[in-house]
Amino acid sequence: MTVNALEAKSFDQPDEKRRPPKTQVDVVTLGDTTLGRFTFEPGWRWSETVKTVVHTDTCQVNHVGICAAGTLTVQMEDGSQATVSPGHAYTIPAGHDAWVEGDEAFVGYEVMSAATFAKPA
User: Fold this and answer.
1) Which CDD domains does UniProt cross-reference here (predicted)?
2) pLDDT cut 70: percent of the chain above it
């Protein structure tokens, strides 16, 4: 990857917004790179929210990101699971469900999946 221009954009004024139930995806594009701020409200579960938009049995997007707030538990199709908390960097392969733990919104910043996550197929 090569950076060819100096750019700065705010997630508070994103290039694109996606709003499935209990979900806020704010997307900014800098050059050839798409970044996302994902905010999931308490009670959010992928299989009950984003699934209604993408119509797959599990999330088929790969994720690389950093958790800024809240707690998210991810369960793979094989039953393995991990919990992501503030300060954690994470990778999540395709083929999973996920849900917010507790009463605080999950906020993650992602560098890989923002171009496609929660976007209708």
Assistant:
1) cupin_DUF861 (cd06990)
2) 100
> Rounded to the nearest 5°, which phi and psi values hold at 106?
-85, 135
pLDDT tens-digit map of 41-72: 999 999 999 999 999 999 999 999 999 999 99
In 3-state terms the chain splits into helix, strand, coil percentages (rounded to 5) of 5, 45, 50
Q: What three-state secondary structure class fits 106? A: strand
* Average per-residue pLDDT for the chain: 96
Could you tell me if 53 and 105 are in contact, meaning their C-beta atoms sit under 8 angstroms apart? no
The rounded distance, in Å, linking the Cα atoms of 35 and 65 is: 10
Cα distance between residue 111 and residue 105, in whole Å: 20
Sheet holding 63-69, edge to edge: 16-18, 23-30, 33-40, 106-110, 63-69, 89-92
